[in-house]
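ok trying this again, last paste got cut off
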Amino acid sequence: MGRLSSLGAWVPHLVAASAELDDPVIVTSRVAGSAPTPDLSPLTMATEMAAALVRIHELDGSGLRPTPAEPLRGHAPIIKRAQREWDHLDMSDAVLIHSDFWCGNALWKGGRLTGVVDWSGARSGPRGVDLAWCRQDLVLLGSPSAAELFLEEYERLSGAAVDDIGTWDVQAAASAHDRVETWLPNYLGIGRVDMTAELLRERLDAWNAKL
């Protein structure tokens, strides 16, 4: 949490902690905002989340567990492709990554992003991990165009092109392949009652077919 402090009110700050194994306690400040409303445009989400991710990726990830550590395991075609393309990933320029950067881990108010939570998976790794994961979330919300806008905004604001984003998209798709239906409670939990397990599968498969 200390290394996140430069993000100010966007992130929780440590208030108190106890490392007692029998009764561990962590108390943090509360970050303002709530889940994105169902009528929030994915295009708005894309621009807000791109700006936030640029700031996050400016932080030093050294000393955190590196990710990804090894190729995904499995036999589905998209997983086999991810295995074949593993050596094409650019693992250089490691930054602090969130590792689960999707709209439900962002807090919102009036269409603006007010915070980012759930930092338990923070790691040191290539920025493509977060970028591909967020792009996939925007696709699952039904907006491939928002996924493209997200990347464009990130590259514009950071001043750097992410040349291997297609390869990272494949890694994210492979990770989602066997479990995308299990994410339905997460989307229902942020008020997306329009979502179904079948719809998540349909949107993921359509996205994968274009990769």
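PB: full thing came through this time. The radius of gyration is 17 Å.
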